[in-house]
Amino acid sequence: MYIHILTLFPNMFTGPFSESIIKRAIDRGLVEIAIHNIRDYTADRHHVVDDSPYGGGPGMVLKPEPLFEAVAAIKSEWSKCGESEKGESELPVLLLTPQGRLFDQRAAEELAEYDELILICGHYEGVDERVREHLVTDEISIGDYILSGGELAAMVVVDAMVRQLPGALGSGESVGEDSHSSGLLEYPQYTRPQSFRGWEVPEVLLSGNHAAIARWRREQSLRRTIRRRPDLLERAALSDEERRLVAQMEREED
Ligand SMILES: C[S@@+](CC[C@H](N)C(=O)[O-])C[C@H]1O[C@@H](n2cnc3c(N)ncnc32)[C@H](O)[C@@H]1O
Predict the structure, then answer these.
(1) Residue 142 falls within a domain, yes or no?
(2) If exposure means fewest CB atoms within 10 Å of the residue's CB, which of 24, 166, 198, 226 is most exposed?
(3) Residues 146, 194: one domain?
């Protein structure tokens, strides 16, 4: 996978992308991440990237020209992405914005299917509307709150996508068992010591009975989802028996 990030603050990515799973995925050649400084795509002497909003109001707005220039340069110089029948690049251009569609596990899995994409990090009051209308192919929000810039949002999106790439994680099973991957929250996890301050690990996990452990985990997963995120149950893929179990658990919870 090839990810291009357009930002005014390239250094912000240095730490997060040089540690842990993302670093390993880069080292293994599973993902290439190119950080492009939006300022490099300005044409004026002072490398101006923003200006005050038409109509007045506080703050500054990112100008359209450097963003259009940057995306054009990536498409012509870097991109390995194909073209549509109309001869247009099929490279997805994603804008990080609190006004976008909410990023969730499903979106992470969907975006991880792309071989290549561009992420645009806004700043200040955001980007000129013409960028949204004529450059961007999708808009992504990581939650209903306002960040100072799109950089942290881009890191969240990249991390969640890269975890999906085959070979990125140590164990292939981990992705499927994580909260949200199965449509449910994950079951409780325990490690040594068996007894900590008098709090014991559940007996079943020590039993060595794999079927019983799997059953307990699934039940815990369902119970935890009912208590914390009942909204997830509507979309979760459950067997008829699990649906019956959920109904019973819901009655117990009342
Ligand atoms: C201070 S915000 C601008 C918000 C803008 N005035 C609005 O109300 O939509 C600056 C930049 O941070 C990024 N940003 C802020 N919150 C975000 C969120 N929840 N998800 C994704 N990006 C976000 C966007 O790139 C945005 O352009």
Answers:
(1) yes
(2) 198
(3) no
115 is catalytic: no
Crossing angle between the packed helical segments 150-162 and 20-27, to the nearest 10 degrees? 60
Distance (angstroms) between ligand 1 centre and the Cα of 61 equals 12
Q: Is there a single domain that holds both residue 158 and residue 204?
A: no
Asked if residue 158 and residue 184 are part of one domain, the reply reads no
What pTM did the predictor assign?
0.94
Give the DSSP H or E segment for 223. helix 210-228
Tokens of 128: 């000129």
Of the candidates 162, 194, 225, which is a domain's last residue? 162
From the candidates 125, 177, 186, 242, which is the catalytic residue?
125
The answer to whether position 174 is within a domain reads no
194: which 2 tokens? 């068996």
CA angle 42, 114, 158 (to 5 degrees): 65
Helix (H, G, I), strand (E, B) or coil at 149: strand
For residue 167, tell me if it sits in a domain: no
Tell me the per-residue pLDDT of 145-159, one tens digit each, with 9 for 90 and over.
999 999 999 999 999
Q: Tokens 């990030």 appear where?
A: 5
* Bridge partners of residue 5, in order along the sequence: 35, 119
* CA 143 to ligand 1 center in whole angstroms: 10
Band of pLDDT at residue 49, cut at 50, 70 and 90: very high
| Over residues 34-59, mean pLDDT | 97
Strand partners, 140: 101
Structural domain containing residue 136 = 2-162
Whether 203 is catalytic: no
Q: Which of 162, 189, 215 corresponds to the end of one domain?
A: 162
Active site residue 98: yes
